[in-house]
Specification:
- The chain is α/β, with parallel strands linked by helices.
- It has a single domain, classed as Rossmann fold.
- The chain has ten helices and eight strands.
- It has a six-stranded parallel beta sheet with strand order 2-1-3-4-7-8, with helices on both faces.
- Strand 3, helix 4 and strand 4 form a beta-alpha-beta unit.
- Helix 1 crosses helix 10 (about 245-260).
Length: about 260
Amino acid sequence: MKSTKTIVFIHGLWMHSSSWQDWMDYFNQQGYKTLSPGWPGDSLTVAECRANPESIANRGVTEIVESYAKIIATLPESPIVIGHSFGGLIAQILLDRGLASGCVAIDPAPMKGVWQLPFSVIKASLPVLGNPFNFTKANSLTFKQFCYGFANALSEKEARELYDRWVIPAPCRPLFQAALASFAGSETKVNTQNTTRGPLLITAGEKDNQAPPILGKASMKKYNSSVISDFKLFEGRGHSLVIDNGWKEIAEYSHAWLKKNEL
């Protein structure tokens, strides 16, 4: 009897794990089992995370990856991983390590070796990277910062609804690690020449300021083409594409890609 495949959803900076609930409901209906663990230090609710930012602070990429690796180790077989933003980078690291059968990286943060730095990324990251003392702290976004980095393709009304519902403080360390990866550190490194990994889909939103398409395309070019590596651009979409009113378009495309690749 064919076993039910599990999907592990991985959130990114400033988003709570419960922001994946619509996706989990959708994929449960398609016959998958789903998990959406938080990052180390995350509390069970958005309100608790906002009230306890110190528990989230000073968590780095390696610690976050290892926390997901431990969860995956408890599963009967390697799951599919679907990650957004920094979660998309973490998902690629897990795929490279052979801990996932396939990966959908939605508007992922750049891996080590992706050097392109568009102005929009600098502007979106400046609230954190502009102060080196933020390295060990947790930082949240103001509504204005959220509108630029996530919700620039949305109405102000919807942006406010999403901000109030999902935004939490996030550790600043991963953003510094990604920014400095070209000079030092290997926390964000992915072995793109690994030919034993499972299939990979990288997506980008045309209007994404936080992770613009040039970053996803640069990551895709690094991968060995002998293994399934696909790229999809969603026109007119910003970084909020997994939580805004058009989330189902991304979920349905991801599902179709998984089925196409027998995942």
